[in-house]
Each structure stands twice: as C-alpha cells, then as structure tokens.
Write a structure and sequence with these properties.
Blueprint lengths: L2 E5 L3 H11 L4 E5 L13 E2 L6 H10 L2 E4 L6 H7 L9 H7 L2 H10 L7 E4 L2 H11 L3 E5 L9 E4 L5 H7 L5 E5 L5 E9 L5 E3 L3 E6 L2 E7 L6 H15 L4 E10 L2 E8 L9 H4 L4 H9 L12 E8 L14 E4 L9 E9 L2 H14 L3
Parallel strand pairs: 1-2, 1-4, 2-3
Antiparallel strand pairs: 5-8, 6-7, 6-8, 9-10, 9-11, 9-13, 11-12, 12-15, 13-14, 15-17, 16-17
Helix pairs in contact: 1-10
The protein binds adenosine monophosphate.
Adenosine monophosphate (AMP) binds next to strand 14.
C-alpha cells in the first residue's frame, strides 16, 4: 500500500488523510504537538519539524513526502530529498516563506503586485512612504500569517514605531490596496506537468482570518487572467501539488498578494462543492496520477468556525456539511468549517445567512 508522509498533522493533514483513505492510501505524520487533528488518520511521529531523527523515520516509513504548512524549514526538505521524493518543491517553499522573494517572483512572471520596497531601517520606510505614498502595510518578510506580523503606517509619525514594532529589519513595505474583493486561484500540477484549476473563490476576512469563502466567484474576464497567472507560477516553479494564489480585485485589475504552497483554507469548499477535492488532487499530483475534474457541483459557500464549535443540534440539517477538526477551543483558533452546496447563488446566500445567524457568527 502506498504510504504518504506528511510534515504537520493539523486539520489540513487530517483532510488530506480523509481524502487519501478513499484512494486506498496510508499516512504517517510528523508533528511535535499533543493530540494533533491528523492523529485520527494515521500514526504521528512526535518530533520537531526539523528533527534529523524524525525526518529520517518519516522518509523510511513512507514512499513520498508532502507538507501541510509553509513554514517547514527548507533545510528539513534538503535532509530527506536524497532518500525520498518531497513535493511541493523546495523552491516554492523558499519563495512562499519570504514575502520579498515572492513579490519579486510575481514581478518576473508579469503578475502585477502592489508597489513594494525592502525595508531594513526607518530611513528605508521614510523613502518608501515618499515613493509609494501612504497608507503603507508594513510586514515582516518571514513567518507572518493570518494578518500577524504586519501593521499599517497611516502617517509619517507612525514610521518609527511601526519599524520598531516589527523588529527593525527584514521587512517589506507594500502600498495599501483599496481592493474591492479578495479572491484565490487554486490549482494542482502533477509530476508530469498536467494542470487542473478550480473556479475562482471569493474570500472574506475578519480580523485577518478567513471567515467566508464563496465559489464560483463572480469574475467574468478576471477568471481567465487569474488562470493565466496561476499557470505561469505553477510552471515556473516546476510545481507538484496544490497551490493557492491570493489576489486582490481592484476594478477590473488583479494584484497578487501571496501564494501558499499547499492545500488552502479557501479551498475547503471543494470537498463537497467540486467534482474532486483539493485534497484528493494534491495527492493525485504528488503520486503523478491523472488529476481529477475541478468542475462545481453547485454554488458553494464555506464558513470557518473559529474559537468555539457550535452545538450540532443547533444547525439546520440537510443543506450544510460540518467539519470538526477535533481541536481544543481557543479564541481565534480555527476549529472547523461548514460548507453548503446550493442550487444557485441566491440559495447559497440564504443558507449562509441562516447558518451564520444560528451559529452566532
Ligand atoms: P497577508 O498575510 O499578506 O495575506 O495579509 C492578510 C490580509 O491583510 C489580506 O488578506 C488583506 O485583507 C490584508 N492585506 C494584506 N496586504 C494588503 C495590502 N497591501 N493592501 C490592503 N490590504 C492588505
């Protein structure tokens, strides 16, 4: 039986596992935490993500290795690469871990981005404010997620405190984008280079965390452009697996914000809403299997369940699917999600509204 090794055993690993079980695959995870969600799917090797022994055991026990979060140390991939195939490739990880390298990569592929500057001092930020105009979003180049590691500079008097707040160097300043909407383009590429791309997803964030996703997004001509950008990125990185490209919509323009070299929260609707889920297609891609179809099964809406799980009895039956990752409740923590697949956008909005009200979201 083919065994998949996954670095990280959170909810993404868990959902990869559930999809893989239906393909007859076995899983082993590597994760230092107690009772991680993916323990419901397969054994978890309890080691740090960069532990030599943990990585060696993972490589020994499995046929192919993947990961479920983008802060896997690149050195960890290098350690196992000679013995085991590891996908997505390290080059994707390197770019996704550094916002500056990522923005430069987008630029080299003619994918438009907000104006940006590398910042290593308050003088750099002063210059960036003069060049790009204010407001500016100042972000750490590395290790930011869900809006963490960033701050908005609205006036020149915020410059000193903003740079100090984020550690003084290795930062990036980005033009503040007054976007109309945020969308994500999610696609898979397998080892031989076949590509399958999902309909564009529209995303609503609250306090920097994804709250609601809707697919298909109303995109018109933007759909083709997003597909072109995503295809360029996948091919350039010789990418294998699922990748999510996050974009701002400004009028009829698209600006790239960032990409995630992994299955993505904004693609959770694909479990019930697409012909093949992002999780199955990620596994198909890394095993060089034919990719599954990405067509919609209806109008899909996904609501993240953050901080506390609802009582199941409270939620109207039949029109939605509840996913409980089995995590301990904590404010701001993603504990599960609910998906509806409706006959049209109107029905989807009605169901989302009822769900949000019932669940007090
Ligand atoms: P990020 O961690 O870069 O994905 O940022 C988290 C969220 O902050 C994004 O989903 C946007 O809602 C917002 N954001 C990030 N960068 C910008 C920007 N340059 N202009 C406006 N909003 C932004």
């Amino acid at each position: 039986m083919t065994k998949i090794g996954v670095i990280g055993a959170g909810q993404l690993g868990q959902m990869l596992g559930y999809a893989g079980q239906r393909l007859g695959l076995d899983f082993v995870f590597l994760d230092p935490s107690d009772n991680p969600p993916a323990a419901t799917v397969g054994p978890v090797l309890k080691y740090a993500f960069d532990s030599d022994e943990g990585l060696r055991r993972l490589a020994e026990e499995t046929d192919v290795i993947t990961y479920e979060f983008e802060n896997v140390p690149v050195g960890a991939i290098a350690k196992i690469k000679p013995d085991s195939p590891v996908y997505p490739p390290a080059e994707a990880l390197e770019h996704a871990q550094d916002r500056l390298a990522e923005k430069k990569l987008f630029g080299s592929l003619d994918i438009p981005v907000p104006g940006f500057r590398a910042i290593d001092s308050t003088d750099d930020l002063r210059q960036a404010a003069a060049d790009l105009g204010l407001p500016i979003v100042l972000k750490t180049r590395r290790l930011g997620y869900d809006g963490k590691g960033q701050t908005i500079v609205r006036s020149v008097k915020d410059i000193d405190s903003a740079v100090a707040e984020l550690g003084g160097k290795d930062l990036i300043a980005e033009q503040w984008v007054a976007f109309d909407r945020e969308v994500s383009a999610i696609g898979a590429r397998n080892v031989r280079g076949d590509i399958a791309i999902y309909p564009l997803t529209e995303n609503e964030h609250r306090e920097g965390i994804l709250s609601v996703s809707r697919a298909p997004a109303e995109a018109g001509a933007l759909e083709d452009r997003a597909t072109t950008f995503l295809t360029r990125l996948l091919n350039k990185l010789d990418y294998v697996g699922v990748l999510a490209l996050e974009l701002f919509v400004v009028g009829d323009e698209l600006l790239a914000n960032e990409f995630a070299p992994r299955v993505h929260n904004s693609g959770h609707w694909t479990i019930e809403g697409a012909e093949t889920s992002q999780f199955e297609n990620h596994l198909r891609a890394i095993l060089n299997m034919p990719l599954g179809k990405t067509g919609m099964r209806g109008s899909a809406g996904m609501l993240n369940l953050i901080g506390e799980m609802p009582d199941v009895e409270d939620v109207p039956a039949s029109k939605w699917h509840l996913h409980n990752y089995g995590k301990d409740p904590r404010p701001g923590r993603k504990l599960g999600h609910a998906t509806t697949v409706a006959k049209d956008d109107e029905e989807r909005e009605e169901t989302l509204k009822i769900l949000a009200k019932t669940l007090n979201i």
